[in-house]
Amino acid sequence: MTMSINNLEEKLSNDLKEAMRSRSQIKLDSIRSIITALKIEKALPGQTGEFTHIQEISVLQRLKKQRNESLEIFKSQNREDLAIIEKEQLEIISRYLPPMIEGIELEKILKEIITDLNVSGIQNFGKVMAHSINLLAGKAEGKIIAATLKKLLI
User: pLDDT by residue (tens digit) across 18-65?
Assistant: First the structure.
């Protein structure tokens, strides 16, 4: 399901109202953090105030990564109370991201890219990685793409 930025903003607005009505503080905080991050990104120098789908996903992935990092820190410090909050926020933010491509489906796409570029061997990793990142932006995580490519190119 592809969601345009206008659809995302509308969905966030509706979800924010629902969170206020249900008095769900974690959901409210999570949605507000997404809205704020999108507004900040739009206000950066060089931005026109309009967003592409890739930029939108990039902001959401950055928020997801921040929550993952915080979750790991809180777990390592035995702060289960804070880890639970981060985990709930992570789940809420993840709802706004499209499903990620992984496993066999990702391998199939990467094999097609390798064939299309007519390359082989690990020495072409950079070339294939750059092409893959552009093609799969917002659909697969960079670390997973890199690990899968290494396996396929060796």
Answer: 999 999 999 999 999 999 999 888 888 877 767 777 788 889 989 999
Domain ranges in the chain with CATH number 1.10.10? 103-153
Largest pairwise CA distance in the chain:
56
Name the DSSP class of 49: S
For residue 126, give Cα distances in angstroms to 12, 84, 131, 133, 149. 37, 38, 9, 10, 10
Secondary structure (H, E, C), 125-148: HHHHHHHHHHHCCCCCCHHHHHHH
The third-level CATH classification (topology) of the domain covering 103-153 is Arc Repressor Mutant, subunit A (1.10.10)
Cα separation of 84 and 32, whole Å? Answer: 18
Q: Identify the three-state secondary structure at position 82.
A: helix
What is the residue type of 14? N
Model confidence pLDDT, tens digit, residues 58-84:
899 899 999 999 999 999 999 999 999
Q: Look up the pTM and report it.
A: 0.73
CATH architecture of 5-94: Orthogonal Bundle (1.10)
